Amino acid sequence: MPNIERREFLKLIGAGSVGVGAGFMLRESAKHPTEYLIPHVVAPEDFSSGIATWYNSVCSMCPAGCGISVRTREGLAKKIEGNPLHPVNQGRLCALGQAGLQVLYNPDRLTEPLRQTAERGSTSFEKITWDEGLDQVGERLDLLRAAGRGNRVALLSQGVRGHLAQLFESFMQQMGSERLLHYDFNHPHTLYAANQRFFGEDRLPYYDLQNTRLLLSFGADYLATWISPVHHSLGFGESRQGRPDIRGKFIQIEPRMSISGAAADEWIAARPGTEGFLALGLAHHIVAEGNYQGADRADWVTALADYSPSQVAEQTGLPVTTIVRLADMFVDIDPSLAIGGGAAANHSNGVDTLVAVNVLNYLVGNIGREGGLVFNPEPSGPVSRRRQASYLSMLELAEAARQGEIDVLILNSTNPVFTLPAAAEFRQALAEIPLIVSLSSFLDETTALADLILPSHTYLESWGDDFPEPGVGFSVGAVSQPVVSPLYNTRATGDIILALAQRIGASNAMPWNSMEEFLKDGWRQIYERGDAQTLAQGFDAFWISVLRAGVWGETTRRNTEFTLERSVIAGIGVQTPEFSGSEEEYPFILHPYLSPNFHDGRGANLPWMQELPDPMTSVVYGSWVEINPVTAEQLGFTEGDLVEIQSPHGTVRAPVFIFPAIMPDVIAMPIGQGHHEYGRYAKDRGVNPIEILSPQIEPVTGSLASSATRVKLVATGRRVKLVKTSGMSRDLGRDIVQTTGPTGVEVSSARPNSIPITEVTS
Amino acid sequence: MNVSIVPALKVLRPAAMLVVVVLVGLVLGYWANATFVPGTSPEQPIAFSHRIHAGENEIPCQYCHTQARRSPSAGVPSVSKCVGCHNEVATERPQIRLLLDYWANQQPIPWIKVHDLPDFVHFTHKRHVLAEIACQTCHGPVETMDRIQLTSRAIDGSTQAGHPWKMGLCLNCHRENEVENGTDCLTCHK
Asked: Cα distance from A3 to chain B (closest Cα, Å)?
């Protein structure tokens, strides 16, 4: 061993220690991190760890009323699927329905009762207890009720059906108030009114897409947003591929190609608002050709005199040959079915248009039979369609507020500040109401203006039921049961209403302690109306079987006879659609469409839906305005140019998206984005086209003619990059997409660089 | 010209020695950690002894691990299960006192997990228990352990204390017993 100096020795000792330490830590860091096995204190009875339990319930993400099966493990919801036993969706579920988990687990949920401490909209809240909150509202309500001024209380809910709707009714009756409104932006007011006029009943019929061989859709995006998209998608699939040797034909008539338009065999763009003329033009041709031989034929000849194909061609901008071809096809292919909705129903002539669509079904005998439209029986439980508020009813509510006639407004999961045009001045009207209480689960634009927030459970935590409308041709009811214990200090909407009922001294009329009790009571009545077999099993067994299956009702459709009132025929006719704004100043018609991701905006706080590219444009996040390539070229716009969309009632800014399947004088914008509140995922993303809609009314129903706004486009000189998943919308001769001609036999040799737009222009 | 590396080495020698010492230290530290604090038999919040319960008193495994035959995970007994006996049995021992404290506060006992599989392995107790594979086949002689020790099995079938399970263990057994699709990747990795 050589001599080592003291200093050298110390150095080596130090180095050795560092080495040992480093080695020790190296091994330590390679170890598995400590995990714990946390047992239950008491073993739960309703689940075993590691084993999934499925609960059947009802989806509340849109008004379709699909049945869901929720997979839970260790008492937490893990996955939502469709309930295979539910006749509406038969085991299928759309993306929005699957994203329901993110409603439950959303980090922006309101977790406890809150009171606004500063001015409204400041969103500075203090925590309060449930008793404090309920007492504050209860005392106010009790005073008003005692003074016989119950009508100064308004309850504004999102569209709800079933026993919760009935509970609202009883509560408001006890309050002595008529001001109970259900408000949904896309409630099909015009469809109800058209069916009332033509069929004499205010229910929606069942549209049998599954068994039809030709579907003529006037503007209804039935695969994505219209009424019951999951059920329609099932029908679409069955019609196309479910029958040997039969392939259903689908024709879509709309100014901007929707998902249904893209899936159709033929897409036809008539001038916006003239869909009703087109339907009557077809009807005229059917009658004139002698293809209708009913006893009332002479009446029809008179009623349809002004709608000859050549006259209609002028109105719609479609060639006469197309009109005649469609009419002949509608007669020749049997059974056929015509439906109407979407933008076609949201014009100033919406009801007339939808009546005209019913005329087509009537003339070829599609009513009350398989492959056509089948009438629904009265639902077996409560539905409250007469409470659905039109645009005018909302204006009346706003006016009443302005006049100081409303002291308390109770909001339940509806967001009119977002889903009403700025022209309605609803937000300003709210300022006149002394007390606004919100029962919403999220801080949406309207809830932000509330003085008091009493947050309700999400649908996955609460009891409820639903009677889908439209039904599927037979009577169906479904019970919604809590699939998890409440995550936070929230309460079920029904329980809050019952707690308020107690505080206004209405316990005698509403003696239930909880929504669950009330619901069971209601279903006992349904049970008692049941057949002998149902009654034989006893209520408890019945109730458990309903909870297990998640759905209860009949299973077969009945074909029904239908005779048309003669007086209806004379009233057939379509008015020219009215648009707000002059054509010279505002050259484009704004076509706002419901986003399949966000519905009317309620899905915008779900990150899964934000991440999901729009199916037609592939754009993710944000908003955009769809412009025909020819128009864009004329205006000198390219994709990503930020433009101002100006209507007579407001301005929004959005980047241009060049979309070949839209009429040159129409521009389209998706609804759903543009929130100013509503949580971190929704806030400050995109713009809300509802904001700039003109207050144009459909006069029969008083609903908003949301497709009747004219706009102009103003360049801002700024550009943004659109976030989208597809590179280029064109094939450029690369043979990526093989195209077939309309006959369906030959592969076309010419590969156009874009969809030919000449056929679209008028 | 005479070139030698010796002067250079002379200059570098102290540095080289430092490096050698650090490396030796590194190995030593690593070995010490692996030997003296292997972490394969961690101290549990309560010194529960499988030797007493499963060994001396011959309580069947599934009396406590009731989920094993029904569920992918064997499950740990709820606190109430322990208290079910220990309300009466050995209530004065300090470790049982600890247990009764947890029960009195209605708190779960945070047991530390010893046997674990990576998340990409799909294993279910149910199938193996129903196929009557003894628990000890994978978990080692639990009935002899006071404190649970991570245990695996060598290819020759001998017990290897302190070793985590490797894929070979699964495959060997599946091969020996001619399990249907037993060596298919997707049987476990799905």
From this structure: 12
